[in-house]
Amino acid sequence: MRLRSIAAAFGLLWVGFAGSAQAAKTHVAVAANFTEPAREIAARFREKTGHEAVLIFGASGAFFTQITHDAPFEVFLSADEERPRLAVEKGFAVPESRFTYAIGKLVLWSRVLDVTDGKAALSAGKFSKLAIANPNSAPYGAAAVETMKALSVFDALQRKLVRGNSISQAFQFIDTRNAELGFVALAQLHGVTAGTRWLVPENLHSPIRQDAVLLKRGANDEASKAFLAFLKEPEARAIIESFGYSLE
Amino acid sequence: METLQHLWPPVRLTLELATISTLTLLILATPLAWWLARSKRAWKEVIATIVSLPLVLPPTVLGFYILIALGPDGPGGTIAGLWGARTLAFTFQGLVIGCIVSALPVVVQPIRNAFAAVGDRPLEAAATLRASPWRAFWKVALPLASPGLLSGAVLGFSNIVGNFGVVLMIGGNIPGRTRVMSTAIFDYVETMQWREANILAGGMVVFAFVVILSMILIQKRYARVGA
Q: Between vectors from CA B119 to CA B118 and to CA B122, what angle results, nearest 5°?
């Protein structure tokens, strides 16, 4: 008797799993800098369409590697245009689905020093650690390196750089004041009043065009296509802009 | 091969980190294990539990607390202030501290067991021969417990070589200073440098195999000697 009821409960559990797998869900790999806006957009997306967007946050480079190894994502919101382009080129994404959903802004931020004049603060170099995202895997890290090179301070500062695994970790190094200052995404400072900041002029680095793309796994998936369509709607665009990104 | 030279710094750094941390660990863990094995106080198990916490806690929890503790708001910042720095995070010393905390349980446990296995009788015998407790410890207890010390050292060393989570969270991935093998592999995988990743990762597999095999052989050998 008891055995039978356990078996029944087990069966129900399986039915439950199967049921939840059928509900419209899309798995979205989101570049770390876009964490907050993505959460807001996913909440609105759910209210409007009933579909659920499951968000996975990380560094764009890491996601790209995972996608080329069949990671279970249907949508990819990268922090650059290069990786979505490569994903299409290598046959992991749907070609015509790629578009720029946001143009990122880079900020120099500190909770210790006054960096309102960022150029002066970087040239003076009166600090021991400057945090950036890993330039090899995170586009904001690459933009930070370009900026320092454009200001001709890169060689002098190279030994002071600490690299976060993603832009989120760079933020955390600065926020805990382990690094005196560092480069983060403007969107990460949304609602942050602490410290001083310097908005990096856009002529100092190549534009951080952040592209979205529909991955092959989601090619025929309603919720995934709906999510990308929703990203283009005025409502989502307003949220993106409110975090300090520009739009095309 | 000239093209592979850039793989050497993380390997060397890892070996330096593991060697220095293991030696420090043996100095810290031996008296601690002795006390845990010999003390009659009931609350010693509370201390034993605290020491063992890193076995159960995810490396992210350890890394998070260690990052705070090493920083300007924690004791690490105060210590760093002695030589005019602000934080111990992102430094080699910081990594040593992080690795010691995470590897402490795997070093203390075998040493404690070894001391417990020595028991009272050899020490009582030493006492009747008028050996001072200090001398009895060095001449009797420590040699008898040496297989435990060896196990602790090997386990601690390999634990540190394999440390990824804590090092990633407090290291800052600085080439030559905090970029160890495990984080270098992570980097290579993320940036699709498969060849580099493969060489380092393959080396790790060989290393792990050698460690475990030698542990088994050590245990076998001492079991025979004991019997």
A: 75
